[in-house]
Amino acid sequence: MIVAIDIGLKRIGMAVSPDGKIALPIAPILRKNRNQAAKDVSNALKDREAKILVVGLPKGGSSEAEMERRIKHFISLLDFDGQICYENEAYSSLEASDLIDDKRDGKLDSVAAMIILERFLKR
Known about the structure:
By secondary structure, this protein is an alpha/beta fold. It has one domain: Nucleotidyltransferase, domain 5 (2-Layer Sandwich). Helices cover 41% and strands 26% of the residues. The chain contains four helices and five strands; from the N terminus they run E-E-E-H-E-H-E-H-H. It has helices at residues 34-47, 64-76, 92-99, 107-122, and strands at residues 2-7, 11-17, 24-30, 52-57, 83-88. It has a five-stranded mixed beta sheet, sandwiched between helices. The mean pLDDT is 89.
């Protein structure tokens, strides 16, 4: 199982690929604080028996280095011993907003994670 995450300040969007061909959005993780979110992501990875974790990283923009540092720090908090891959998440939220009408309940975040996962699968 391949799992992708789109890390945000309020939610962590999640998507899965059971076969390495198709990407499906799943329920996002609500983020109260960094440690709780890391524990919830770790549990989701274990529950799905994830072998690969694809993490969206923003490329370009003035805060690229700071965002990369924060995301990599969050990933270091995870209890996950599988392969970690980073994928450019540029414009994934914008693409996701074009795909869905209902942007509540974190659907946008998980569709963005699905787009990140689709990019990874195409490589």
